[in-house]
Amino acid sequence: MNTKTTNIPHMLLPRQIAEQTGIPIYRVRRWIAENKICFVRCGRKVLINYDKFIDFLNTGEAEETPI
Question: Domain ranges in the chain?
Fold first, then answer.
């Protein structure tokens, strides 16, 4: 018997992310436009990986190194 478990990502809409975290919806949309958070487009909808979003909030934005 194969008992392999797979963790299914918890995907939420930007509105739901804003409601659960208290971050304004315009900020969540800005991070999507800047590709700073993990998301996928499904037709016209945008789905955000909640766990990776929380990691993003905990670690902050990565510093860009000058060339």
Answer: 11-59
